[in-house]
Amino acid sequence: MNAQDQALFDRVTASFAEQFGHAPDLVVRAPGRVNLIGEHTDYNDGFVLPCAIGPANMVAISKRDDDMIEVVAADFENARDSFALTPRPERNLSQPWADYVRGMLSALQKAGCTLSSAKIAIAGNLPKGAGLSSSAALTVAVGKANLALNGIDMDNIRLAQIAQRAECDFVGTQCGIMDQLISAQGKADHALLIDCRSLELTDVRISDDIAIMIVHSGVTRGLVDGPYNARRRQTAAAAAAMGVTALRDANLDMLAAARLDAVTTARARHVITENQRTLDAADALAKSDLAALGKLMAQSHVSMRDDFEITVPAIDDLVAQLQDAIGNQGGARMTGGGFGGACVAIMPRSRVADVQAAIETTYKTPNGNAPLIIFERPGPGAAIL
Ligand code: GLA
């Protein structure tokens, strides 16, 4: 276990022992993710290219012998939530973090799993508001821990689908499958090309001399469910108007012929072009063609800015500064759902010190600080420790 995981493991097991008076039966780790390219394509049956990262959530768990689930959140001063498994858990509006636990247990039950009561401690080290999927890392960790506790065998695709249901049906974000699937299925040193229709998965090796840099803009994502769900409705409306199941099945000629209003056209154009860019980027990454990859990332950012309208000015500036510092061997773009959060940059490993120094000089977060910068090699997906 690396130092970062060890510290998190110590924290979650200490919180568990302090609150419940004994050691947990098992601990599960599920990572956050960074998406290299393919944004807002997952719920349009398209393609995405994320990788799992080092920062993660951990869940420590043991059985109890009544019908109750008791949860303690080490990151919220050991705040507690307790609820019965029958009837199925309902929302706890006073503690939003608890809804991901309740939602996942409810979704597992809906999927036919018989769960026992449990004591659970959770802790994480994903930066807040960075759009690195702390919620998916939590639902996947809670799911895997409860499955293991109950001796239920389940493949990662099914686990991710159930975690997605927890967010869509319980919490109310109409998200796609990307975050949960990469958290469950990530592989060290690889990005994962996901066909979000067939759920065919293709590992794409990232050569050792390539670095992935994540820069948190410091603009935290506020309440983004509204604009996110609106994008989902707009793209579904565009597909329906063209008579296709999803934008995955449309092309730019069909879009031109459909004569939709300007906003709907722009939203659809982003998804249609982003799908092709994602496939091209997977090819470029497999060949370590950083020049081609950089161009695709730049086009993706412009498309998110102008057509999908999910970037913010501070992020546009940060991406421009990253691109300036990197030059043409690599690129940068906003990553994740949008409206704040982090940018992802790809470059030769030999350039990271220069690029980091440049960004720490040119970019300031809204608080006037240098941004949080983390370097990542893709890490493994969720596992029992
Ligand atoms: C969020 C969602 C994902 C995906 C991205 C945008 O992270 O959870 O399903 O739609 O936004 O690509």
Question: Can you give a write-up of this model?
Answer:
With 385 residues, this protein is α+β, with helices and mostly antiparallel strands. It folds into 2 domains: 199 residues, Ribosomal Protein S5, domain 2 (2-Layer Sandwich), CATH 3.30.230.10; 171 residues, Alpha-Beta Plaits, CATH 3.30.70. The protein has 11 helices and 13 strands. The chain has a 6-stranded mixed sheet with strand order 5-4-6-3-1-13, with helices on both faces. It has a 4-stranded antiparallel sheet with strand order 10-11-9-12. Strands 2-7-8 form a 3-stranded antiparallel sheet, with helices on one face. Helix 3 crosses helix 5. The longest helix is centred in the last third of the chain and has 25 residues. The chain starts with a helix and ends with a strand. Bound molecules: alpha-D-galactopyranose (GLA). The site of alpha-D-galactopyranose (GLA) has 10 residues, from helix 5. The site of alpha-D-galactopyranose has 10 residues, from helix 5.
Q: What is the CATH T-level topology of the largest domain?
A: Ribosomal Protein S5, domain 2
CATH architecture identity of the largest domain: 2-Layer Sandwich
Task: List bound small molecules.
Answer: alpha-D-galactopyranose
Helix percent band: 40-55%
Q: Which features characterize this protein?
A:
385 residues, Ribosomal Protein S5, domain 2, 6-stranded mixed beta sheet, 4-stranded antiparallel beta sheet, 13 strands, 21% strand, binds alpha-D-galactopyranose
Question: Can you lay out the helices and strands and say which pair or pack?
Answer:
Blueprint: H1 3-20, E1 26-35, E2 47-48, E3 50-63, E4 68-73, E5 79-84, H2 96-110, E6 118-124, H3 134-149, H4 156-171, H5 178-185, E7 190-195, E8 201-205, E9 210-216, H6 225-241, H7 252-258, H8 262-286, H9 290-306, H10 313-326, E10 331-334, E11 342-348, H11 352-362, E12 372-376, E13 383-384
Parallel strand pairs: 4-6
Antiparallel strand pairs: 1-3, 1-13, 2-7, 3-6, 4-5, 7-8, 9-11, 9-12, 10-11
Helix pairs in contact: 2-3, 2-4, 3-4, 3-5, 4-5, 6-8, 8-9, 10-11
The structure holds alpha-D-galactopyranose.
Alpha-D-galactopyranose is lined by residues 39-40, 42-43, 175-176, 178-179, 336-337.
